[in-house]
Sequence to fold (273 residues):
Amino acid sequence: MAGIVGVHGIGKYNYYLEAGGSAVGAAEAMRRKWDRYLHLGLGGEQRPYFAEIAYFSHLLNDGRPGDEVPKKAAAMELQSQQVLADWARQLGVGEHVTGALKSLTGWLLERLDTRSAAFAKLFAPEVAAYLTDQARREKSRQAVAECIRKNRPRVVIAHSLGSVVTYEALWANPDLKVDLLLTLGSPLGMRNVIFERLLPAPVNGRGERPRGVGRWVNIADKDDIAAIPPALAASFTGVDVEQLVNLDWIDFHTVRKYLGCPALDPHLRPFLA
Fold:
């Protein structure tokens, strides 16, 4: 039986819509794709690697595909703008600009290149929804925890925002035990956006590996604008391995590129016998 649970990142609401509003259908469609991506990366036989993908994107979205900001409340739009501004400062874009938040975020989007602007329009609303809406946050954590509890995987592979949800879910559910946590393109260490808002809160500027995790490996592309900083060991105790990779200067954050990366092979191989 497949011994891996995957946890997806930003921008996966379309799977839910294409599955007719079914989270189960969305998760299964993603699982089939993740199996193909990892098969290419490992170069082994075609087989089911993932037991399930923990799906939570529908819990962070209200609208239709293409909606850039959840429309349920004006406050959420404001929070999204704040996340965008804080994230853009990590890139050094508009670092010294002050003024009305709405004007600033519009200015930032105009100055980002095409790939960064497209990323920001997915990243900011979903991160804001997760971090500022306690009900959404708890439901997302529960979805990930229930998936891990049901499948009892030896390995969890968490991509992008999924690494944040997974980190919190594992801390909130100390009964969950995982031999290997593999984070890909993780924004866990992003200051002024995510790091200081984590639950549990960092102590003296340091987070900590969840107690139920045996080994933590973090892999990030050098150009990944979600993984700022790409290394987590400076912010978290218990990161066993850090690896900086060069996936693609354009396609720098997709799970397809990460799962197809040879860097995963030595860490996953012991669990695939």
